Amino acid sequence: MLFYDRMQFAFTITFHYLFPQLTMGLSLMIVYFKWKFLRTKIDKYNDAAKFWMKIFALNFAMGVVTGIPMEFQFGTNWAKFSELTGGIIGQTLAMEGMFSFFLESSFLGLFLFGEKLLGQKLHFLTGFLVFLGSWASGYLIIATHSWMQYPVGYEIVENGKFVLTNFGALFSNPWLLPSFLHNQMGSVITSSFVVAGVGAFYLLNNKHSEFGKLFVKTGVIFGLVSSILVAFPTGDLTAKNVVKHQPVTFAAMEGIFETEDGGSEIILIGQPDTENKKLDNKIAVPNILSFLTYQRWDAQIKGLNEFDESLHPTNIPGLYYAYHIMVGLGTIFIGLMLLAAVQLFRKKLYNSKWILWTIMFMLPFPYIANTTGWYTAELGRQPWLVYNLLRTSDGISPTVSSGNTLFTLLGFIGLYLLLGLLFLMLAGKIINKGPETTKLN
Amino acid sequence: MELFWYIVLMTMLTIYVILDGYDFGAGIIHLFFAKNEKDKKAITNAIGPFWDANEVWLIASGGVLFFAFPTLYASSFSGFYLPLIMILWLLIFRAIGLELRGQIHNKMWEGIWDKAFGISSLLLALFFGIALGNVVRGVNLGMVTNGVSAHEPHYFFLPLWNSTFSPHAEHLGIIDWFTLLLGVIGVVALTIHGANWIIFKTNSDLNEKLKKVVFNLNIVLLALVIISLFIWHIIEPQPFHNFLDKPWLFIFPIITFTGLFGIFKVKTFKKHGLGFLFSSLFLFGGLTSTVASIFPKVLPSTNNINPDLTVYNVAAHEYGLSVGVYWFVIAALLVGVYMFVQYRVFRGKMDDVGYGEH
């Protein structure tokens, strides 16, 4: 049954993506620490890199084991979709396996265990290759995702099969670059908040204070840059793709039920009432949405009323909330990081207790923002698997009964609950123990 | 073009079985023969830096199957739904067993993850053997009952077993006595293979004992292989017709038996890698002989209504397959370089690498 198939994919992908978002951002920051060590020869940076490698290794293992089910589920639960589109999305997914997974997995072992064997420069190189592999993986996944949102380079032949006609189009897809950069910046935000949050934890506890300062400082700088870049230009460009190619999705995201002449307001808060096609308790600012979208105060934004209901996203309130939570949190991230950066510049950050507390408590929120961002993209594409061409209900496996899907969904829930607990326990142990100081020079 | 990708896919799957096969085998040895901490350490060290990259061969093979043969991917992954998801769960258990064991030094913690690692390795070896059995036995494509297809001709679904455990039942199960036999062959062969890897990569005290284990298990393996050859005709009336038509294919069974008989000399090898080489030959020959015997079928139909799935009726279209060759060749060369670096850095005996101590 469609419901369980969707629930299983949603659950397993949501849980899975908690890990790669840290992997991708953290690999960049570890490479930074390692690079800083090579340049300054100050041991602190190498110790910091080694400390975060421990978290990275644990996180990476979780990402790998929860990632394998994703590639299998296209076939197990979405057989018809795979059969019809495999000749196209199979390209980018197979490329991910061949280009990035081999790169990551071969060099991760060397990176984790090869520092003495390889020497510092080669060790840096292995770290860089792991970073490269993880970002390449993100790129190829988003190339796949972009094709589903905005199909290009294809032809539909007998039996509804999608056939690739232009390989290059998969990578020059206008959807790809903005989404990829937006996603990667989201991932750097997660790692920045994790690094800064752990640093704040050390400072507030008066232990490992040297590292606490380094982590807070690095986290705030990376966090400020990525929080700004995630909104502008990457988020802005991504949203403009949605306006242009999926206007009905955009209307639902923003909660615009009716087209308004003379410009649309931007809705900050409110509860969509889809039965009566209105928004309750709304707080809105007039004309801002038109300006943000078209740079004209009175530009017309199409409301949901302009589209046939069969084309509406299937879960309008879910989509609306996902989008608003993402945008709301993104705004808070910019504010907090800006404030922290100002205090850092004034050399007052390490003593500003309340900012440190806030940074520490904000640690989980980038995970929520990334997750709701992906929900916006995925719920926004519904009811389609391939936008406007293949409906989600036409993509499921024809022979797998709902009882079997529910069985495996329950199994995944149980198993992932265990994985999540183990991860938190072990990550907590590593963080509580803290970085070790070594003398290399 | 289909043929090219078929060879690529089979090569990748064979590499996967040879590489992750020694990981599974090491897990089985770990479960039954590692008595003390030193033995266990030797075993996990021997596979430590490799198993993760070895598993990538499975994912990458899955990716190539998806892209080159989407119909086969869709049909078989949905049809073998339950065992595939269970394989995923086992892979997860196995991986976290290996990764988490060393994180906390506590006897009970270590014991739990040792068992998770060992038991899931054993079950994976069994499941992969059973999977091979299902592919050669075939399935009820289209789910035909009383001469009528209930689904499109390339879709099916199999429960884990039916009450008769017979490979001839109208409604087949994944586990029947024939596929189970192949599952057991899988377990025995991979145990030998894993033991050979440990002998190759460590100076463990366990090695002398393992040589005896390998020798004895190889007698069992030989017996099982002979039995399976005699009963093969029960599931396929003319099991060797491909070989008689194209005699050059006999190279594959010859490789199989070279490997099988080579393993018997395990006690006399001066070079420790030889045993591993022979068990790799056995796995390579065994897999290639099996798929060659049903070629060009990739999943036979057990009814007379719907045709077999063959290399030619499950492939993606020509353009995609051709353009894929370019990136695949580049990627394959890179993978070759990575593997060279990896096995070069971690060459020789692995006793002192200290895997799992973060």
From TrEMBL, chain A:
GO cellular component, one term: cytochrome complex
Record Pfam families: Cyt_bd_oxida_I
Topology of this chain in the membrane: Multi-pass membrane protein
Keywords: Cell membrane, Electron transport, Heme, Iron, Membrane, Metal-binding, Transmembrane, Transmembrane helix, Transport
Gene Ontology annotations of biological process type: aerobic electron transport chain
GO molecular function, one term: heme binding
Entry keyword Transmembrane helix: yes
Compartments, as annotated in UniProt: Cell membrane
Chain ranges passing through the membrane: 6-31, 51-68, 88-112, 124-142, 185-205, 214-232, 320-342, 354-377, 406-427
Main location, first listed in the record: membrane
InterPro entries, per the entry: Cyt-d_ubiquinol_oxidase_su_1 (IPR002585)
Family that this chain belongs to: Belongs to the cytochrome ubiquinol oxidase subunit 1 family.
Protein name as annotated: Cytochrome d ubiquinol oxidase subunit I
Automatic annotation (TrEMBL), chain B:
Name listed for the protein in its UniProt record: Cytochrome d ubiquinol oxidase subunit II
Membrane-topology annotation of the record: Multi-pass membrane protein
Pfam families: Cyt_bd_oxida_II
Transmembrane segments: 6-34, 55-74, 80-96, 116-136, 174-192, 213-235, 247-264, 276-299, 319-341
GO molecular function: electron transfer activity; metal ion binding; oxidoreductase activity, acting on diphenols and related substances as donors, oxygen as acceptor
Keyword Cell membrane assigned: yes
Domain of life: Bacteria
Keyword Nucleus: no
Similarity remark: Belongs to the cytochrome ubiquinol oxidase subunit 2 family.
GO biological process: aerobic electron transport chain
GO CC, one annotated term: plasma membrane
Organism of provenance: Mariniflexile fucanivorans
